[in-house]
Amino acid sequence: MSLELATAGESHGPALVAIVSGLPAGLLLDRAAIDADLRRRQQGYGRSPRQQIETDEVEVYAGLRHGRTLGTPLALVVRNRDHKNWTWGMSPWPPEGPPTGKGKDAVTLPRPGHADLAGVLKYGLADVRDALERASARHTAAVVAAGAVAKALLKEIGIEVEGAVLGDDLEQRVDEARKAQDTIGGRVDVRATGVPPGLGSYASRETRLDARLAAAVMGIQAVKGVEIGDGFALAGLRGSEAHDEIHRDEDGLYRETNRAGGIEAGISNGEQIVVRAGMKPLPTLMKPLQSVDLDTGEPAEALVERSDTAAIEALAVVAEAAVAFELARAAREKFGGDALGDFVGAHSAYRERIDWQPR
Ligand SMILES: Cc1cc2nc3c(=O)[nH]c(=O)nc-3n(C[C@H](O)[C@H](O)[C@H](O)COP(=O)(O)O)c2cc1C
Fold first, then answer.
1. Atom of ligand 1 nearest to the CA of 280
2. Looking at ligand 1, which atom is closest to the CA of residue 140?
3. What is the signed CA dihedral for 88, 89, 91, 95, rounded to 10 degrees?
4. Which residue's CA is the closest to the ligand 1 atom numbered 24?
5. Which ranges of the chain does DSSP label H, i.e. alpha helix?
6. The pTM is what?
7. pLDDT digits (tens, 9 = 90+) for 87-145
8. What's the rounded Cα separation, in Å, for the pair 197 and 152?
9. CB of 356 within 8 A of CB of 183?
């Protein structure tokens, strides 16, 4: 059974939902660890005051008993505490009483760079809110909750995943942008250690680990570029400078470099996996960009809604979760196991089998 993630939820609706299916039975989950990742996602320099309103906490509705997975679908819920201000505007059912609170007025001013214009055209919507609510990166809370579960599974076989922001001038860039009522993007780097050689396969596009990780990270809002290892920089090098030579000593095979970022031919090669992502500047500006009012057809300024100046530190946490989930999927495919012990045992037996010696 493969590990799968389904999510649901709007930015200001009642909650975000993540259903993780295909987990082995017997995996011990730590509620505090999941909540800690949810908090990490909310923190970071340049985020909006919404992050103080919301203190995300995971609730579990199915698939877990006394902290251990049952091998059945795991249902995770993260409530939107801000929903209390949107009960009329985001009511799932036709609301009762006169319009009140946030979201009561239709949005007709699409923001360049957001889902707004393409979303209303595609789905035939009268209110831009019907598009932006699901497109919003609030969705990434569900990804982070599921990623924390994936990290617990990976830890059982010695794999750790960690995301970080690239560049040390973040705070200065945020301060300057905020002063100018502007926004910024940035770059993040996710590293996975302890990954055995052999996750993913060159057999097809769908099975290549590099393609899968790229899709997982590109699937996060505002990510516009993904590279594995030295990625784009490799394009400017010669072959003699670009590849990671193979050596051997008394302990076995080793490499001195890791420009490939731990993946060759769509298969993990035993080196650290390195995935980098570039995030565009956030599209909601306090000094709004030029747009057109969809009601009148007249030029107008785009919607201004409470928004982050930067979310790059949050992206590092979300990308970490997305990479962890995809690696856990690939590990589950390789090692199977309905019960956690079977999964861990298959990994140990495989590690023994690939302990390479000269023929
Ligand atoms: C963690 C995170 C937080 C974000 N916060 C905001 C925000 O406050 N304001 C905003 O306009 N966009 C924000 N975005 C980006 C938008 O959600 C995204 O640009 C938009 O949905 C359009 O999708 P695209 O950029 O993938 O094309 C955020 C993205 C991430 C990953």
1. 25
2. 1
3. 50
4. 222
5. 31-42, 50-53, 116-123, 129-135, 140-155, 170-179, 209-218, 231-234, 239-242, 312-335, 340-353
6. 0.97
7. 999 999 999 999 999 999 999 999 999 999 999 999 999 999 999 999 999 999 999 99
8. 20
9. no
